[in-house]
Design brief:
The chain is an all-alpha fold and about 210 residues long. The protein has one domain. The protein contains seven helices and no strands. Helix 6 runs antiparallel to helix 7. It is rod-shaped and about 95 Å long. The protein starts with a helix and ends with a helix.
Length: about 210
């Protein structure tokens, strides 16, 4: 009831801030679960794949990548498929896979940053509307003496929207930076895993060349 009363007292701007906060919260929860599900130990994955590929177990390696969640496994799987096809430029296959995976990680995260940016502006906008209402009350009364009740509603609305805008913006900035750090970590894992896998394939090609 308390929050509902704040929504009523804050006016239309307060509802906009509340809706933006709900959207940002939903996006944060979804992305947090996504990153938790897709973050793996890249070093262990590469060690397992190298052990399998040393026996030329390409089917087993691809199956391992398919059954491992996350962008790291998908990018490495693209490199393995390219090597199996006999592609000479494996880096191109890795880059193409990264172009699909990195935007997928970043999807909707910018929405949280946008809410964090516009929430204080919406709060200040509500403050201006509240002050305008207060001055309108003064103008309509046309009296030097005004009771506190005549101005309290407008001033209350102005203060509520400002506080709400800041209350939404602060956690949104924290959430955005947290998700950005998770994306950065996953991107580093992708780079590490793809570099190690490409190095492994280069050594394999060199060994085959020496054997011939």
């Amino acid at each position: 009831m308390f929050f509902y009363q704040l929504l009523l007292d804050g006016g239309a701007v307060m509802w906009i801030i509340a809706i933006a906060a709900v959207i940002a919260s939903v996006v944060f929860v979804i992305k947090t679960f996504q990153f938790h599900r897709e973050e793996i130990n890249a070093h262990e994955l590469i060690n397992g794949l190298e052990n399998v590929l040393k026996r030329d177990g390409f089917v087993e390696a691809i199956s391992l990548c398919d059954n491992t969640p996350g962008p790291v496994a998908r990018v490495v799987g693209a490199a393995i498929l390219a090597f199996q096809r006999g592609d000479k430029d494996l880096q191109q296959a890795v880059d193409a896979a990264c172009l699909e995976e990195v935007p997928r990680l970043e999807r909707y995260v910018g929405l949280i940053g946008t809410v964090g940016y516009i929430a204080p502006l919406l709060g200040f906008f509500g403050t201006i509307l509240g002050l305008m209402e207060a001055f309108q009350t003064i103008h309509q009364t046309q009296s030097v003496y005004l009771s506190a009740g005549q101005l309290s509603g407008a001033v209350h609305m102005a203060l509520i929207t400002t506080a709400a805008g800041l209350a939404v913006a602060i956690p949104c900035y924290v959430a955005y930076n947290y998700l950005a750090s998770r994306i950065h970590t996953l991107a580093l894992d992708i780079e590490l895993a793809s570099t190690e896998m490409l190095g492994f394939f280069e050594r394999r090609r060199a060994e085959k060349g020496d054997a011939q």
